[in-house]
């Protein structure tokens, strides 16, 4: 079999069909030596190694295949051995997110996905985000091995599930690649993550690492390896470098911002041949955590919302049902689902639509004076709420929810402005939004709420799970692994909260889209009420403190 896959790039795993010489009383060579001789003769490689996992099945496999076997090679290492001839080999790519773990089983020869699955990250019971998980491990040292074991078991079970879906055996999985935040990365490999809990946030290792799957309890091919893509630094994980590779941000000649929304949001700015990254203190609010109206990406969650600007009446779309809520078929088709709450795409839509219809001011306050004109605005909890659905289950977005979303998105925009300042960028030429698998986020509405600085709407885009696609590319080719590793080395992490301008930038960014700055580019595509640059509040070209 050729060393290249369908893309013409060097494959990570290659198959070799060989006939091994049968044992001879006059030749005392071991089965392992004769196997290595056959592989070296067939491939032209030297120094082929056989480890204990393959040695345990070697004699049985050789005799079962009547001395004709298929060898899976990872460079010069035999990672799997099969009786007879086979042409199919598989690998798994994992995106270990703080909230969800996503996995794909890929045919390494054809580059085709054979199965996909996902599950809630079992570490959520130790904390919703990496920082809380570190705190849990520091307060209760027994939690660290418990987290390690839970994460390892989850990956093993996902491999078993993928194999069942594709109707193969786990033994046919010969390689694994994963991306993760630094805490999950360290826990999986039994590295102490405690130093990541306080400045200077030092990792044990950030470079790419390869280790045996069986070392961490994942039972696949006997000596299959797991490849950990490189971390960047501090709390910026390998998911961002994989996403940047997948979106080819370094190929773009103009200043481009990449925003990876998740339980921990990360951003990256590429400009003038340099790349800066940051992990803004945005929390998990944009993932629907910690607010009344929020919900994870499950069937029944609202992923799109529109509000009539004249009547303030809403209509919405939920995951798992095609018709919108104002369609007569909606009630029947949604009856079996647990309706309620807005996922990340729905939350961004809700904030943007309330702003566009005039019910929400630039400062993020629901307008009490409009309550007399619509039943949708109601006074509750000493403030106002917007009622999306009045029947059971009741769905409303409260003023408290809005404030939490404001603070979260403000941290992202403020961090982006700090990166722009440090690279001397005055305007963004493009913005790419990505997130885990799920409904697409509307980039224009993300611009309306000010998730990022003003940008031409023609150059806004959404890419579904770019980090996962980067991991998948690294599963297939060595060139992708090398490119992601080189990219990770080039990226410099900035602790934006330490910048003296961060607090002022965050205060300004709490406005929708900004407290002081108009967003004329976004406003040219969609009319935003009260979207002027409030120049009167600026002194001598600098924002007043």
Structure explained in plain terms:
Helix 6 crosses helix 12. With 545 residues, the chain is of the alpha/beta class. Mean pLDDT is 91; it is low at 536-545. It is elongated. It contains 14 helices and 23 strands. Helix 10 (443-448) links the parallel strand 19 (430-435) and strand 20. Helix content is 30%, strand content 23%. The chain has helices spanning 31-43, 52-64, 130-139, 143-166, 182-188, 238-246, 330-334, 344-356, 399-423, 443-448, 466-476, 478-490, 502-509, 520-525, and strands at 13-19, 49-50, 68-74, 77-83, 90-96, 100-107, 112-120, 173-180, 209-212, 225-228, 256-261, 266-271, 274-278, 302-307, 314-318, 377-380, 383-389, 395-398, 430-435, 460-464, 491-493, 538-539, 542-543. The longest helix is centred in the last third of the chain and has 25 residues, at 399-423. It has a six-stranded mixed β-sheet, sandwiched between helices. A six-stranded mixed β-sheet has the order 20-19-11-12-13-21, with helices on both faces. Strands 1-3-4-2 form a four-stranded mixed β-sheet.
């Amino acid at each position: 079999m050729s060393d290249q896959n369908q893309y013409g790039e060097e494959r990570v795993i290659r198959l070799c069909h060989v006939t091994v010489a049968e044992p001879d009383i006059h030749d005392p060579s071991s089965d392992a030596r004769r196997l290595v001789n056959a592989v070296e003769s067939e491939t032209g490689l030297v120094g082929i190694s056989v480890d204990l996992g393959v040695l345990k099945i070697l004699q049985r496999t050789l005799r079962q295949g009547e001395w004709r076997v298929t060898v899976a090679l990872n460079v010069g290492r035999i990672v799997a051995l099969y009786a007879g001839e086979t042409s199919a080999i598989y690998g798994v790519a994992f995106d270990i997110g703080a909230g969800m773990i996503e996995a794909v089983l890929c045919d390494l020869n054809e580059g085709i996905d054979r199965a996909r699955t996902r599950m809630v990250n079992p570490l959520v019971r130790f904390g919703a985000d990496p920082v809380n998980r570190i705190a849990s491990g520091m307060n209760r040292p027994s939690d660290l091995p418990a987290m390690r074991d839970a994460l390892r078991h989850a990956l093993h079970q996902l491999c078993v599930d993928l194999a069942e879906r594709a109707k193969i055996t786990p033994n046919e999985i010969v390689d694994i690649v994963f991306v993760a935040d630094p805490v999950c990365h360290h826990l999986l490999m039994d590295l102490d993550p405690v130093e990541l809990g306080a400045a200077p946030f030092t990792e044990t290792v950030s470079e790419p690492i390869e280790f045996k799957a069986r070392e961490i309890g994942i039972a696949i091919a006997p000596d299959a390896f797991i490849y950990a893509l490189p971390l960047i630094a501090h709390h910026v994980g390998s998911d961002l470098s994989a996403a940047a590779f997948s979106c080819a941000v370094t190929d773009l000649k103009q200043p481009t911002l990449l925003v990876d929304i998740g339980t921990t949001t990360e951003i990256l700015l590429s400009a003038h041949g340099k790349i800066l990254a940051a992990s803004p203190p945005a929390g998990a609010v944009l993932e629907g955590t910690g607010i009344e109206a929020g919900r994870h990406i499950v069937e029944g969650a609202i992923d799109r919302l529109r509000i009539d600007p004249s009547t303030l009446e809403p209509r919405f779309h939920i995951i798992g049902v095609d018709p919108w809520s104002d369609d007569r078929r909606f009630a029947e088709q949604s009856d079996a689902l647990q309706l309620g709450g807005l996922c990340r795409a729905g939350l961004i839509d809700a904030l943007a639509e309330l702003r566009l219809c005039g019910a929400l001011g630039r400062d993020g306050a629901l307008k009490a004076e409009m309550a007399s004109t619509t039943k949708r605005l109601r006074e509750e909890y000493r403030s106002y709420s917007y009622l999306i659905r009045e029947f059971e289950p009741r769905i409303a977005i409260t003023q408290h929810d809005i404030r939490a979303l404001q603070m979260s998105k403000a941290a992202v925009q403020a961090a982006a402005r700090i990166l722009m300042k440090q690279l001397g960028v005055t305007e963004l030429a493009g913005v790419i939004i990505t997130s885990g698998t799920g409904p697409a986020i509307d980039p224009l509405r993300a611009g309306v709420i000010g998730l990022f600085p003003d940008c031409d709407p023609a150059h806004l885009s959404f890419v579904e799970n770019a980090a996962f696609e980067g991991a998948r590319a690294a599963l297939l080719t060595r060139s992708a692994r090398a490119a992601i590793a080189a990219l990770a080395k080039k990226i410099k992490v900035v602790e934006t909260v330490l910048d003296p301008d961060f607090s002022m930038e965050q205060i300004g960014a709490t406005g929708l889209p900004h407290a002081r700055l108009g967003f004329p580019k976004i406003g040219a595509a969609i009319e935003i009420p009260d979207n002027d640059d409030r120049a009167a509040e600026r002194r001598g070209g600098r924002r007043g403190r």
